[in-house]
Write a structure and sequence with these properties.
By secondary structure, the chain is an alpha+beta fold. The chain contains ten helices and twelve strands.
C-alpha cells in the first residue's frame, strides 16, 4: 500500500478528535507493507483479510455515525454493507464469514479512498457531545481490529512455505533479558470490587461493578517463558493425558498438537519471518487447553479473572490502579512486534484465566444494533486479561475482558500462574 508508519496518540489527555485521527491513520499504516494479495487472502475462518479489516472499520463509522446522524449523508456504495457487516443481525444480510477471502474487489486502493472520505466526513460529527459515547466505541472497535489485522496477517503469511516477512527480515523484535525467578503478588482474601467503575470508556461487558469474595492467593509477577515451555515439552507435557482437560486431550490428539503455534525447532514465525526463538521471552500463541495443562504440570493453576483484576487494581495494597494499564510492551506504531518479558502486568501477551466468559450480575446489553457487540457471545469462551504486544497502548484497562474459544491460539495469548495461599 505504501506510506510511512504512523505513530499513534496515546494517553488520557488527548482529545477525542486526536484519538480518532490517530486510530484511522494507524490502521492504514499497519496495512501499508502488504501487497494486494497479502491483504486479500484469508487463512482460516477465524481470521479475516487485512483488506476486510480496513473496510469493516470504515463500515462501522459510516453505518452507526454518518448514516444515522449526519443529515443528507449518502452511502459511498450501496452494495458494500453486505460485504463488510460482520455479525450485526440488525443490519441485515451479509457475506458468509468464511467467504471474506473471496473478495478480490473492491481493491485496497478503492477501500482506502472510501476510508479517507468517511474519515473526512466524520469531522462534522466528532465534536457533538451527544455522540461522544458512540465515537468512543468506534475508536475502541477499530483498535480491536488493528490487533486482529496484525494477528490475521501473521497467520496468513505463515501459510506460505517461504515464510515471507511483513516487515524487513531480521529486524530486531525481541530485546528480552534473562527471566529471573518468579515473584508473587499476594492477596490476603476478602471482598473485591470487580468491573468498570464508570470513569472513562468501557465496553458493556465490563460491568456492572459488583462484589466478589476472593480466597487468599498469589499471582506470578511475570509470564511463563519460552524456555519454561520447552521444559514442559521435554518432560512429555503434550503426551501425558493426566495433565489435560478431556476436551483438551481430544484436541491435542485430533490436531496433532505438540508445541505452540508458529514453533519449528528452535525457531518461530514472526512478522519478520522465521527467527531464532528467545528462551527468556514469554511464550505465546497457546490455547486455553495448553495453558491449563502447563499450569497443572507446574503444580499451580490459572487465576480467575476476578483474582487478576483485584491485583491489577492494587486492591491487595489498598492503592487503586497499582498497575498501569498503559505500561509494558504494547503497540505504539506500525513496526515489528514480539513479546519481550518483564514484570509489567499489562502487555506482551493476553493472559488466560480459568473463568468462563459470562455476564456479570445485573448485566444488560445496550439497546440497538451495537448491543450485539459483546453480550451475544457469552457462551463457551474463556476470559483473558491484560494486553499484548499487538494491543494499542491505552486500549486496555483493569476491567477489560478479552475472550476466545478454548482451542484458539492465533492471537498473542500466554499465561501467568497463580497459587492458593
Amino acid at each position: 500500500m505504501g506510506g510511512e508508519p504512523a505513530r499513534i496518540v496515546t494517553g488520557t489527555g488527548n482529545t477525542l478528535t486526536q484519538r480518532f485521527a490517530a486510530t484511522r491513520a494507524l490502521t492504514e499504516a499497519l496495512a501499508a507493507p502488504l501487497s494486494e494479495a497479502d491483504a486479500t487472502i484469508q487463512s482460516m475462518e477465524d481470521a479475516s483479510p487485512a483488506k476486510w479489516h480496513l473496510a469493516h472499520t470504515t463500515w462501522f463509522w459510516e453505518t452507526f455515525l454518518l448514516r444515522d446522524h449526519l443529515p443528507g449523508y449518502r452511502l459511498w456504495n450501496d452494495d458494500w454493507p453486505f460485504l463488510f457487516n460482520s455479525y450485526y443481525e440488525a443490519e441485515g444480510a451479509r457475506i458468509a464469514r468464511v467467504r471474506r477471502g473471496m473478495l478480490s474487489r473492491p481493491t485496497v486502493s478503492e477501500i482506502v479512498e472510501w476510508r479517507r472520505a468517511v474519515t473526512d466526513a466524520m469531522a462534522q460529527l466528532i465534536d457533538d457531545p451527544a455522540l461522544t459515547p458512540l465515537i468512543e466505541l468506534g475508536v475502541a472497535h477499530e483498535q480491536q481490529h488493528q490487533e486482529l489485522l496484525l494477528t490475521d496477517v501473521k497467520h496468513a503469511l505463515f501459510q506460505n512455505p517461504l515464510g515471507p516477512p511483513m516487515w524487513e527480515r531480521g529486524a530486531a523484535v525481541s530485546t528480552s533479558s534473562a527471566a529471573g525467578d518468579v515473584g508473587w503478588h499476594s492477596f490476603p482474601g476478602g471482598i473485591a470490587m470487580i468491573g468498570h467503575d464508570g470513569r472513562g470508556f468501557a465496553f458493556d461487558n465490563e460491568g456492572p461493578r459488583h462484589r466478589v469474595l476472593i480466597e487468599p492467593f498469589a499471582l506470578a509477577d511475570r509470564l511463563v517463558t519460552n524456555g519454561e515451555w520447552q521444559a514442559f515439552i521435554a518432560d512429555g507435557g503434550y503426551r501425558n493425558a493426566a495433565l489435560w482437560l478431556s476436551d483438551g486431550w481430544a484436541w491435542v490428539n485430533a490436531e496433532g498438537i505438540d508445541a505452540p503455534l508458529y514453533w519449528q525447532g528452535d525457531q518461530h514465525f514472526t512478522h519478520c519471518g522465521w527467527q531464532d526463538r528467545d528462551p527468556a521471552a514469554p511464550v505465546t500463541h497457546i490455547s486455553y487447553y495448553e495453558a491449563d495443562a502447563y499450569a497443572t504440570w507446574a503444580g499451580l493453576r490459572l487465576p480467575t479473572e476476578f483474582e487478576w483484576e483485584a491485583i491489577a487494581r492494587g486492591q491487595h495494597t489498598g492503592a487503586e490502579l497499582a498497575h498501569d494499564p498503559a505500561a509494558g510492551n504494547q503497540l505504539d506504531r506500525a513496526a515489528p512486534l514480539l513479546p519481550r518479558g518483564g514484570t509489567d502486568l499489562f502487555g506482551d501477551c493476553w493472559q488466560f484465566t480459568r473463568s468462563g466468559y459470562l455476564p456479570y450480575p445485573r448485566f444488560a446489553p445496550v439497546t440497538g444494533a451495537v448491543g450485539e457487540y459483546n453480550g451475544k457471545f457469552m457462551s463457551g469462551q474463556v476470559v483473558l486479561r491484560g494486553a499484548s504486544c499487538a494491543t494499542v497502548r491505552g486500549h486496555s484497562r483493569a476491567s477489560y475482558r478479552n475472550f476466545f474459544y478454548p482451542h484458539q491460539r492465533w492471537q498473542f495469548t500466554g499465561l501467568r500462574l497463580a497459587k492458593d495461599i
